[in-house]
Amino acid sequence: MDNLPQDPAMLFSFINMKLRDEYPSLDELCASLDIDRKLLEEKLNAAGWEYNPEANKFW
């Protein structure tokens, strides 16, 4: 996850933009960008955001 924004708010914005514009699911985003989904979710959850698969975004 070194190539991703480290600031939680910037990471939140970056991931949601990618989900909106390029990826139909968090699993596909993580596979394509070689991101550990568990670590990503832990980092965003710690900042108060949770993934909603129906909306395909963190909120």
What this model shows, in words?
This protein is mainly α and 59 residues long. The protein has a domain at 8-47. It is built from 3 helices and 2 strands. The chain has helices at 8-21, 26-33, 37-46; strands spanning 51-52, 57-58. Strands 1-2 form a two-stranded antiparallel sheet. A hairpin with a 4-residue loop joins strand 1 and strand 2. The chain is globular. The protein starts with 7 loop residues before the first helix and ends with a strand. The mean pLDDT is 97. It comes from Muribaculum gordoncarteri. This is DUF4250 domain-containing protein. It holds the Pfam family DUF4250.
Explain the layout of strands and helices.
Blueprint: H1 8-21, H2 26-33, H3 37-46, E1 51-52, E2 57-58
Antiparallel strand pairs: 1-2
Order of helices and strands: HHHEE
Shape: globular
Radius of gyration: 10 Å
Assembly state of the chains shown: single chain
Distance between the termini: 20 Å
Q: Strand sequence of the main sheet, in spatial order?
A: 1-2
Low-confidence stretches: none
Major sheet description: 2 strands, antiparallel
| Number of helical segments with 4 or more residues | 3
**Overall mean confidence score, pLDDT:** 97
- The helix/strand class is mainly alpha
What is the total tally of β strands? 2
Proportion of helical residues: 40-55%
The percentage of residues in β strands lies in 5-15%
Pfam families: DUF4250
Protein name: DUF4250 domain-containing protein
InterPro entries: DUF4250
Organism: Muribaculum gordoncarteri
